[in-house]
Amino acid sequence: MGSPPEKELDELAKIASLICNVPISLITIIDKDRQWLMVNSGLGISETKRKDSFCQHALHKPKEVLVVRDSTKDLRFKNNPFVIGEPKIRFYAGAPLETPNGNVLGTLCVLDNRPRSISSNHKKALQILAKKAMDYLNTRKLLLEQNSKIETNISELKKLTDNVPGGIFQLKMDPNGELNFEFFKQWNEGSSPNHQL
User: What integer pLDDT is reported at residue 196 of this predicted model?
Assistant: First the structure.
């Protein structure tokens, strides 16, 4: 989680700031004890305790944007260390990052150090940006899984070819990322079996 923000996610957060005209935007991931700031535009920290996180309150209603107009007047937040101390957060709006199976990982959120409100169109825009962030994270996860499969297949292929006395084969990858190859000529056996890794 300590890696630099990915450009695509960073841009989505910056768009959220521009749309809502606020100085701070984040993309957060929340685990059991901590909130990780995957993208942090305008706030100089990389993680917080979950109990101090505004975003944890947005996880309970995945289809809604949580809006806190003035944190000093909200019982949930008025004693929060980020409200009574720097950066003195007053306004928060967070759209949950919901996975396809309904789990909520965190939020795309915007913050300000002065009270404010946002329109229903701003809320819709935050939800769209949160969905785009989640789409990106899902695609990245699938890509990592496919790359892992390919590396495993290549490793298995190397083991096989290192032990084959000699032969000519064609290698193909099916749509699921599986490597298939067919021996055109197997010098020792004279047969041409099909193999799949």
Answer: 47
Number of domains observed in the structure of the chain: 2
Please tell me the predicted confidence (pLDDT) of residue 164.
63
Please report whether residue 149 resides in a domain.
Answer: no
At 113, which amino acid appears? N
Specify the pLDDT at position 60.
87
Q: Is residue 158 part of a domain?
A: no
- The answer to whether the beta carbons of residues 66 and 57 sit under 8 Å apart is yes
Domain, as residue range, for 54: 7-143
Residue ranges of the chain whose pLDDT lies below 50: 1-2, 184-192, 195-197
CATH code, domain carrying 126: 3.30.450.40
Residue 90, both tokens: 């007053």
